[in-house]
Amino acid sequence: MPQNETNEQNKIVDSAVAEAGAYDIIRKRLDEQGTRLKKLAQMLNDDRLAEFGGVQMQAIGRTRIRTENNCVARDIVQVGSTLLFGYNVFIGLKKETKIDDVFATLSLHESDDGFELKPADISSTFLSDSRFKGDFDELYRYYKESRLVKLTTKDGKLLAGFQVGERADDLRVFRWSISADGKDITYIDNRGERDIQLPNQYDFEWIECNRDDFVHGKHPHVNIVDKVFVETIGGDLTVKVEDNTEDGYGIYSEPVEEANQSLDDAEVSYAVVGDLILLAIKPYKEEATRYLVFNTLTQDVQRIDAIGQSCVQLPEDHGIIFPGGVYLQTGETKSFPDEVDGLQFKRAIRSPNGEDVLYVFYEPIEGRFALFSYNLIAKGLQNPIYSNGYALRDDGKLVVFSAEHEPTRVHPMQVWQTSYISAEFASQQPESTTELGKIGNSELVRGVSDLYSIHALIANTEVSMRHYEELNGASKRIFDTHYWLDNPSNEEIAGTLREVSNTAELVIDEFEKVQSIQQQSTQALSEAKSQQRKLLSNVAITTWENAAQFVASIAEIRKQRGHIATIKSYRYINVEELEALDTELVETEASLGEQTVEFLADETALDSYTEKTTEITQAIEQASTNAEIRPLLERIVETTGQLDLLSELITTLKIEDTTVRTRIVDTISEVYAK
User: Fold this and answer.
1) What is the rounded average pLDDT of the residues 644-654?
2) Distance of alpha carbon 390 from alpha carbon 186, whole angstroms
3) Given CB 3.0 to 4.6 Å as the disulfide criterion, which of 252, 290, 393, 484 pairs with 301?
């Protein structure tokens, strides 16, 4: 769209906003700008892919490894140009275990017929080192039940871990140093137990709450950084966004096992990760800790217990990843319904193009891996790859296998092509001298990702003041982060971003009014729910003794329905909840109507009205002043109103016995006549 035409449209909308002050009008403009920004970001990404290319992670072939003996495969790793395959052989009567009973060295070859893994002679590899052979023989001499449990490369070392005792952490770890080019592999020693440990399962700090964080009152809670408030008392775990101890309502709640607990009985910890606040809550007398994610942008809470196993941050403040899924700052979440018990974070591998990150999770007992590939532009995970071992080559080819439970000589392998090439391999690619080439692929990936993030903020329907403030800030900060957005070739993107920033400021002003209306609507809904709970509770506990009780209750139900119909027109009110309340009233009125018919079938059912009429008549005859007559007139009006409702009710109720219907109508007429 030409810039002058855009400016003209903005002037028209500005005029409309000035006249109407309408949030919806400004919001519509913001949506249009977001759509335009998304198209421009897509065009930029297409140019980037045309310049640098892209690799989709996909399976490209299958192959197999054949071993001399029956064995259970345990792990595989790439060491320079060699694939090191590790397994555990069950030989039976054989007295000694040799190196080739545990290890095989292979090379991957590709041809028109597919892939083939060719074995190499161990005697000509780094495994032939005499010091390693001596340590290996000593291991199996003193620990005959030793078994290989892990192969990995870490910090320029190759590590081979053997379990020598009953416990999983009873390890003996051999280690080799690997040169930068992968060609020189030198044995170090058998004392690498500390090197093989998994990293910290959290790359952020958990903070434990204490009494200083307690806020006392009628409904006390724990204050977490003045942004979210939690408690586990009164029978449920509640999360609130207001520092309000007058009532116990919040934005999220779930039952706890022990209702009678005090504020300091629960164990509460938290971690602030960008716009997310992670909560670890262990209610009183419960074994399991519950893990919740509170999003300060969307004011939403989700329970994700997998965080308790492991959790690390996604790049560029995108959110968090945990065994089985991700949660983004925008509130989007994706998880896979697979078995993830025991998985722990092992490492993250970033592709040289800056677009993809491979997160490796590992379960050490059975030796299971879960590989999650996260894309910064799409902000999503590919389907995970589960295996018992993986080896990543310099050219990005990934070899994985799933071990059989029973020993076998044939071990199927799968080959994937990925974008996770080594830095050395990437440096061999020719450099681009175009404008995009000078910016660089990684920098462009971050820029496109940030543009999509701004669009996601605009498109998010769960908005708040914090959400719009973040949108305004992000559309300004992006120029500081990515200098090249001000290049002439990106003029349209830069112009759209500035329009978004200006419109976000207008939205913030108008949204304050919207929030006021939302609060009024929320309060009206809350009061209606409270009134209805009280009304239906009274109906449930009433002992029905006369017709007036039925009439009065039905009148209250219809009054409540009328109130719900009135507040349904309030802006931003939850219409679905109101409709559910109305449905509940309709069902209650129908049930009460049936009870009324049963009651009125008794010939003495309306005697109370006859007695009331006689009582009023006698009182009028004895009255001598207007002051004495006035309350009697009010009683007459009240009784007449009840009779009117009763007459109307009779016409709507299903009374199959016409004799009963006629008698009820005649009795009402007699009371009217009096």
Assistant:
1) 67
2) 22
3) 252
